[in-house]
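WP5 quarterly update. Target: Ion-translocating oxidoreductase complex subunit A. Source organism: Bittarella massiliensis. Length: 196 aa.
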Amino acid sequence: MKQIFVILVSAILVDNFVLSKFLGCCPFLGVSKKMDSALGMSGAVIFVMGLASAATWPIQHYLLEQMNLEYMNTLVFILVIAALVQLVEIILKRYIPSLHKALGIYLPLITTNCAVLGVTMLNVDNKYGFWESVVNGVGAGVGFMLALVLFAGVRRKLESCDVPKAFQGLPITLVAASLVSLSFMGFAGLAENMFK
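Structure tokens (predicted):
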């Protein structure tokens, strides 16, 4: 249980995919303009990361490793993630069309979101068990949500600031993203030292 909690806290705060590993920056910068779309995108990413972790673990351990095809895991994992994203898109289009429309092009981009592939590859590299993989996937998604929601708040605050002309637009967005990223460095060592 301690190991599961350490993995969860680490995935959310310490090893945040967006702010520590700089994976998934495209949706992070693109969807963080409005809080509604940030929350919707976050929910979709949590769902896809959790399901991708749950789906890729048995494929890795019972299929690829048994047949000595570990070198194929990147290709297979991308196909699994693409199928899960299509499932999410179908569900959103059917049941929450306003969110589907708000997410626009960013929803299919979850397929190519390197954070989703990164979490599945990290599960394999760390030799996590099934539940550890699922917790890491969900934790990474929650960490993505935390980063996206925080940054959406920062960007909303930036709209009311008097930004110098040279920094308006993308430059101030990147400066703000780097400052939010620096703030997460303060969590280094938290997960490991929590139970000492």
